[in-house]
Amino acid sequence: GAALAAFETMLKKEPNRLGATVGAAKAAEQAGDAAKARVYYAKVVALTKGADPIRPEIAAARAFMSEH
What integer pLDDT is reported at residue 53 of this predicted model? Predict the structure, then answer.
């Protein structure tokens, strides 16, 4: 919960930071908030559209979105 709040605060200041968006998605998923995780993972996928999914964070986001 605290980690998610910290990432969300950071994203309010800098909304398109990939690292913070990935962190928020993971924190929401670990907190059991699948709806919020989906929102953040969708943003990760949008931010990395056309990117090579070599980074594990990108691959994980795309996998989460395909499962949910």
Answer: 66
Token pair recorded at residue 51:
């990117």
Are 61 and 25 spatial neighbours (Cβ–Cβ below 8 Å)?
Answer: yes
Q: What tokens does 31 get?
A: 């907190």
List the structure tokens of 10: 């950071």
| Radius of gyration for the chain, computed over Cα atoms and rounded to the nearest angstrom | 11
- First and final C-alpha spacing in the chain: 21
Please give the structure tokens belonging to residue 41: 């993972």
Count of residues making up the chain: 68
Inter-residue contact 3 to 23 (CB < 8 Å): yes
pLDDT in tens, 2-55: 999 999 999 999 999 999 999 999 999 999 999 999 999 999 999 988 877 678
